Amino acid sequence: MFATFILIGASTFAVSYVLTVRQGFRDRTFGVPLVALCAFIVWDVRNALGLYQPWIPMLGAVSSLYVVGHAVLLGQLLVYGPREFPKLSKPTFYGLVAATIGFAAFAVPALDHALGDAWGVHTAEGTWLIAMASYPMMLYSRGTTRGLSVPISVLHLLTSVAASIALLYYLPASAGVTSPTLLRFICLGMTAANLIYLGVLLWLRGASLRNVHGALSGTPAASSPVV
Asked: What is the dihedral of CA 205, 82, 76, 226, to 10 degrees?
């Protein structure tokens, strides 16, 4: 059952990233928060290089494909990112990206070592928690849903739920996780943050549809964010 739920989560994660890349090119922006993307890149590169014990036999090969996907997302971040941070000069923005990747390159293995986590479970799911908590802030800073969508968020939620079930109920003893408290907090936190993010997206979409309906019918609509 562990492998089944991990494969479900890996599949929904992969599909969400394909949609994120497409949405990013369509809206000419990036669709993964900067800090989370940098941490994802570091973790998947380490996994593709065999620095973690494989959760399931095929996960290393899957991580190699994720590295390619993250490279495309990183390209979108570098091309479209500066316009999302107008108060930063381009050199400053690129320096920030480089510094974040560099910090993650030291922080991820340091946390793995401190927690005795040969599988990288805590850092993998901790990065997902960072991403889910960052999406509402990205929505707020942009003031629009550019680069984001409800279907992508639903796939993120399915990934969170599948990973949480696998790790909290079926994690093999060979993973070496002796105290599940931190892992339980991370899994519940990322699922709760994902639900909040999806709820905000649905509210924004509903507000937009109400405004469109009001404009077509001539009925004044309540003030709502521009999406």
From this structure: 10
